């Protein structure tokens, strides 16, 4: 059982995330095996346009390659991670909220894309379990809406 403190977990996940960011360019250079250690399999990728279950390492990496190829169309040349927030859910799960900007050759920001990533540690290190592209048109990245739930009683 993981008995690390919240501070220790945040530090651990922050180091993991920095390592992940350093490995991402491998998608464009073909150094794919390095990336396999960052993903749980199966992994779920969710956006407003659909949800895809990636059932093996090859599907996960191909999904990322497709995403990066689409982002690197003629106008979009470079992705920049603009900052992130780590939220510890429990000793084995956390979320990372991050926003990426795509820039043209002159450094002008063309698009901002926020992501929410669910990580889990099943005993062999932190892995991405679900990656969700937030939809700015739904204000998903701006302000969560607090909903009131009716009281629910479980048991007798």
From TrEMBL:
Q: Name one Pfam family in it.
A: DUF6841
Biological classification of the source: Bacteria, Bacillati, Actinomycetota, Actinomycetes, Mycobacteriales
TM ranges: none
Q: Which InterPro entries match?
A: DUF6841, NTF2-like_dom_sf
Ranges for domain DUF6841 come to 12-132
Gene3D superfamilies listed in its UniProt record: 3.10.450.50
**Organism in which the protein naturally occurs:** Nocardia pseudobrasiliensis
The name this protein carries in UniProt is: DUF6841 domain-containing protein
């Amino acid at each position: 059982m993981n008995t690390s403190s919240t501070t220790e977990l945040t530090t651990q996940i922050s180091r993991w995330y920095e390592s992940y960011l350093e490995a991402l360019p491998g998608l464009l250079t073909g150094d794919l095996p390095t990336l396999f250690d960052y993903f749980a399999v199966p992994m779920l990728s969710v956006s407003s346009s659909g949800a895809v279950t990636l059932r093996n390492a090859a599907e996960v990496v191909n999904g990322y390659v497709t995403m990066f190829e689409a982002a690197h169309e003629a106008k979009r040349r470079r992705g920049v991670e603009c900052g992130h927030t780590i939220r510890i859910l429990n000793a084995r799960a956390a979320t990372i909220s991050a926003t990426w900007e795509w820039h043209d050759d002159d450094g002008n920001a063309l698009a901002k894309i926020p992501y929410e990533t669910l990580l889990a540690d099943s005993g062999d290190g932190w892995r991405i379990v679900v990656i969700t592209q937030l939809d700015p048109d739904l204000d998903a990245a701006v302000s969560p809406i607090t909903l009131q739930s009716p009281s629910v009683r479980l048991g007798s």
